[in-house]
Amino acid sequence: MRTSPHREEPCAAVAIPASLAADVEGYDWARDGVGESGGAVYRLHGKPGHPDLFLKQGEGTCATDVTDEMVRLMWLAAFLPVPAVRGFVRTPDAAWLLMTAIPGLTAWQALEAFPAERPAIVDALADFLRRFHAIPVSDCPFTSNHACRLAQARRRLDAGLVDVEDFDEERQGWNAEQVWDAMTALLPLAPDSVVTHGDFSLDNLLWHNGTITGCIDVGRAGVADRYQDLAILWNCLCDFEAALQKRLFHRYATAAPDWRKLNFHLMLDEFF
Prior knowledge:
Phosphorylase Kinase, domain 1, three-stranded antiparallel beta sheet, globular, kinase, ATP-binding, nucleotide-binding
């Protein structure tokens, strides 16, 4: 799950709906190469006196993903620091989402750049995750539990959309059906439902001056087992030190890790 801090390349401005044109006028453009999931992500920057913006654009099923993110951003804004929606356009075939930028480095960039601060960064990540999971489940209109995700995963598997070359090291050389069989063999799992981010990875958390300043890429947010988030973050930390993985669970204040749930959610993530 390692990503490069050099995550974007300059590019020309792209065609956008007329209703968004005034908002993006005068900006320089760069295309983001991390975590696009089939869509396109652009950072708009360099306009004197104006903050950076991000634009997401998707077509087909990616348009639905962009729409899902817009709806969740609007809802999450009452609970957590997330990008503010500056504009949104949806057509039958495409969607455009314009958002404010959250200040800071990604958590991955911060862990890479400041080795001495890694324990404090992990503590901040765990604290932010507990804050996310403290949102009242009764207030959340979105469902992302593993039954829902399993149905999505099966559709992706049957459609040939699973990238087996991107599997974690433990499953290199496996095919998608082997992962499916190993994953479903771990069911049933006792539910422990909270409001989850859905993709709580180091690239989706921003860190600045000793704190997590917010989260991005919230299109999968919804009620699910807390291990949906814990497993992804734990797996990301393997790029650094095993001690940080242990620290995560200690700071999060959970009991000894539930390895059955953790492994299930790691395998589930292979399908997305």
